[in-house]
């Protein structure tokens, strides 16, 4: 593979801009102002926790998914995972690589950022997990540095191949918050890990196919090999894409509605302020001011209602997380 391949995803043309960016990138400060995407240190979060981070920071939610990479370990269990390349909305030359992974929950996955390798090498997987086990779908992010992320990948997965690439057109890239909504929807369909069905292979492939379905303006390229059965067990075809897409649209509509109502409330408030300034000292304009006040109250009411619905949705997510915690604790007691 040409070392200049990464400059222009999905094209064979040489990019001078990409070439210069690659030269000067090591001398530029790496952004760390977008929690959950561009950070100054390592962090690993469940996909629901990751979504909460993005919702709390406008810059984080605006980062765009530029490339998705399908990876497969070449050792032992042939674990599969995804790399997500996000571009910074302001520092256009900055790209953060996040790792998306599904593993069965154990005490080590709860307490150790680098525990995926320990889990994949353990007898916990050597003995097939026929019974459903709580799954942990997580996002790992680190300092925006090629050497840093490569070091993490080497420590965690040892040897692996990048099998396929999915590049999104610049005009139709999913935002980080849209990706988080998809992952949040998928984490409940189902939320259990099962070696013969809902394991890492199923999870990575379902994310891949669902993103292609939701954001079809993309280009897929296969580098080498392909997906293969684990321990001669055939991995089921994606069976949750329709369900996940439907849940995605429901959750995304709720978020869009809340954002739109907040925007309308701000516009109404600004419009009232301008009107008050123009009509200062003019009693005959009182009726217009009163109407603007009523409009503002109505807009604020709608915004509060949208925010309440969003908060209810977050509460439902938290309830699911709490339920997962109780299941993990119960599972731990059964194992003990």
List keywords for this structure.
single chain, 336 residues, alpha+beta, 8-stranded antiparallel β-sheet, 11 helices, elongated, disordered N terminus
Protein model, in words:
Mean pLDDT is 78; it is low at 1-13, 108-115, 121-130, 191-196 and 229-235. The longest helix has 50 residues, at 286-335. Helix 2 runs antiparallel to helix 8 (176-186). Helix content is 49%, strand content 17%. It is an alpha+beta fold and 336 residues long. The chain has eleven helices and eight strands. Strands 1, 2, 3, 4, 5, 6, 7 and 8 form an eight-stranded antiparallel sheet that branches.
Question: What layout of secondary structure does this protein have?
Answer:
Elements (H helix, E strand, L loop, with lengths): L15 H9 L18 E4 H9 L2 H5 L1 E10 L6 E8 L7 E10 L2 H5 L3 H6 L2 H4 L6 E9 L4 H12 L2 E9 L7 H11 L5 E2 L6 H15 L3 E5 L18 H38 L7 H50 L1
Antiparallel strand pairs: 1-5, 2-3, 2-6, 3-4, 4-5, 5-7, 6-8
Helix pairs in contact: 2-8, 8-9, 8-10, 9-10, 10-11
Quick overview:
With 336 residues, the chain is an alpha+beta fold. The protein has helices at residues 16-24, 47-55, 58-62, 107-111, 115-120, 123-126, 146-157, 176-186, 200-214, 241-278, 286-335; strands at 43-46, 64-73, 80-87, 95-104, 133-141, 160-168, 192-193, 218-222. α8 crosses α9 (200-214).
């Amino acid at each position: 593979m040409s070392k200049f391949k990464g400059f222009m995803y999905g094209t064979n043309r040489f990019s001078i801009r990409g070439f210069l960016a690659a030269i000067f990138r090591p001398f530029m400060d790496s952004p760390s102002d977008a929690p959950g995407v561009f950070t100054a240190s390592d962090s690993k979060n469940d996909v629901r926790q990751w979504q909460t981070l993005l919702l709390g920071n406008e810059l984080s939610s605006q980062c765009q998914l530029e490339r998705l990479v399908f990876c497969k370990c070449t050792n032992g269990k042939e674990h599969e995972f995804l790399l997500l390349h996000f571009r910074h909305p302001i520092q256009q030359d900055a790209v953060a690589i996040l790792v998306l992974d599904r593993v069965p929950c154990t005490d080590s996955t709860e307490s150790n950022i680098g525990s995926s390798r320990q889990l994949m090498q353990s007898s916990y997987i050597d003995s097939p997990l026929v019974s459903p086990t709580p799954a942990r779908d997580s996002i790992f992010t680190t300092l925006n540095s090629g050497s840093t992320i490569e070091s993490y990948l080497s420590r965690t997965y040892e040897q692996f191949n990048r099998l396929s690439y999915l590049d999104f057109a610049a005009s139709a890239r999913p935002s980080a918050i849209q990706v988080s909504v998809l992952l949040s929807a998928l984490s409940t369909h189902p939320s259990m890990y099962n070696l013969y069905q809902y394991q890492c292979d199923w999870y990575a492939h379902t994310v891949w196919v669902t993103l292609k379905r939701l954001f079809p303006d993309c280009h897929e390229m296969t580098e080498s090999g392909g997906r293969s059965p684990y321990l001669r067990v055939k991995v089921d075809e994606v069976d949750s894409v329709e369900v996940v897409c439907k849940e995605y649209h429901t959750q995304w509509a709720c978020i869009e509605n809340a954002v739109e109502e907040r925007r309308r409330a701000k516009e109404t408030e600004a419009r009232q302020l301008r009107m008050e300034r123009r009509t200062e000292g003019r009693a005959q304009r009182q009726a217009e001011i009163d109407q603007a006040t009523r409009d503002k109250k109505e807009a604020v009411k709608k915004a509060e209602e949208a925010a309440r619905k969003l908060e209810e949705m977050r509460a439902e997510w938290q309830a699911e997380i709490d339920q997962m915690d109780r299941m993990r604790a119960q599972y731990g007691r059964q194992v003990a």
